[in-house]
Design goal:
Layout (H helix, E strand, L loop, with lengths): L2 E7 L4 H5 L5 H10 L4 E4 L1 H4 L8 H14 L2 E7 L13 H17 L4 E4 L8 H11 L2 E6 L8 H13 L4 E6 L9 H9 L4 H12 L4 H7 L6 H6 L3 H6 L21 E8 L13 H10 L3 E8 L13 H20 L1
Parallel strand pairs: 1-2, 1-8, 2-3, 3-4, 4-5, 5-6, 6-7, 7-8
Helix pairs in contact: 5-6, 13-14
């Protein structure tokens, strides 16, 4: 029996926040009103002086949680190893930064930290004593373009398996389950100079159950002849590497990883008027998770905002509301 719950990553409403149309309080009330059970926050973006927040900031956060009844589910953490011009951070400096993030999460009542893709595996073991002390798990994001076939991701997951702790795991981003290439991406990029032939070719890959990332990998890291023929300009050549961030895995890829999955990002590019997301089958994935007894949150993460066409309104609020409504309807049908 599954117990799948809804959550919203506040990343989804970043344009509303950064352009001061909505405060953190406004956003928290909005996602609760639209039916979310939990909230996922980017402390660096929305909490002043993170990870060294003041007691006043922590108190205000807890006040909002109490007022809204939202569950503090996850904190998104980015390990910036390039703080200095002349060197990258040492291992000790990386660990110290992440310890501060763990301590901050505990202050916020959050028990899970999502580490951005490509965080090195060697952070896990030295962080575990702090994870245990503060009751905060760490989990690497498995993201399209940086998923299960990437050496850094594989190394992190192998270390998760080795330490075998409830405080180390993975977060799945559903960009690895695209069934179509997002049309908001192709519309935006075509407007700014990418040739239609590039997207026509990529769409043929999705039609046959593949994707650009897989095709290039299976071609020894080289572009297939059909892609070379589709590239019409140097602009196309610069843009094509960005198109491998939309993958088309079968859900069964998760079979061996289910014991280590702590959270899901339900990536969203475009909720359609008909109901489903244009490029992803949320209902199919929710059924898979139900059948595999997933007990956790699925977090709305809207990225279509960055592909808003010039002169058009950024539709963050509307898209978040639409996804929550659709996922809730699916869960009622699947979970009863």
């Amino acid at each position: 029996m599954s117990s799948i719950k809804t959550c919203v990553s506040l990343y989804s409403l970043q344009d509303e926040f950064l352009n001061k149309r909505m405060s953190l309080k406004d956003i928290m009330y909005y996602v609760k009103e639209k039916g979310a059970e939990g909230v996922e926050i980017l402390p660096d973006q929305m909490l002043k002086n993170a990870p060294d927040i003041s007691q006043e900031t922590a108190d205000e956060w807890h006040k909002l949680l109490k007022e809204t009844g939202l569950k503090p589910v996850c904190a998104d953490v980015f390990l910036n190893t390039n703080l200095y011009k002349n060197r990258t951070l040492t291992r000790r400096e990386c660990i110290d930064l992440l310890i501060k993030e763990i301590q901050q999460a505990a202050r916020l009542g959050i028990h899970l930290i999502r580490l951005v893709s490509m965080v090195p595996y060697w952070v896990i073991e030295p962080l575990l004593p702090y994870c245990e002390k503060y009751d905060v798990a760490i989990a690497i994001e498995v993201h399209a373009g940086m998923a299960f076939d990437i050496p850094e991701t594989k190394a992190f997951i192998e270390e998760v398996k080795r330490v075998n702790s409830k405080y180390a795991g993975i977060v799945i981003d559903t960009g690895i389950f695209c069934r179509k290439f997002p049309r908001v991406v192709s519309a935006y990029e075509t407007l700014f100079g990418t040739s239609k032939q590039v997207f026509d070719y990529i769409e043929t890959l999705f039609d046959k159950g593949s994707d650009l990332h897989r095709e290039i990998a299976e071609n020894g890291g080289k572009y297939p002849p059909e892609l070379e023929a589709a590239i019409q300009s140097e602009h196309d050549r610069m843009f094509v590497p960005l198109c491998d961030g939309y993958e088309n895995y079968d859900y069964s890829v998760l079979d061996e990883y289910m014991p280590y999955i702590r959270h899901f990002h339900f990536k969203m590019f475009e909720m359609t008027p008909e109901g489903p997301e244009y490029s992803m089958d949320y209902k199919g994935l929710l059924q898979y998770l139900h059948d595999h007894h997933y007990d956790g949150y699925v977090s709305t993460e809207y990225e279509g905002n960055r592909f808003t066409l010039p002169g058009k309104k950024v539709m963050e609020k509307e898209q978040v509301a639409a996804q929550l409504a659709y996922v809730q309807d699916c869960l009622k049908e699947i979970q009863g």
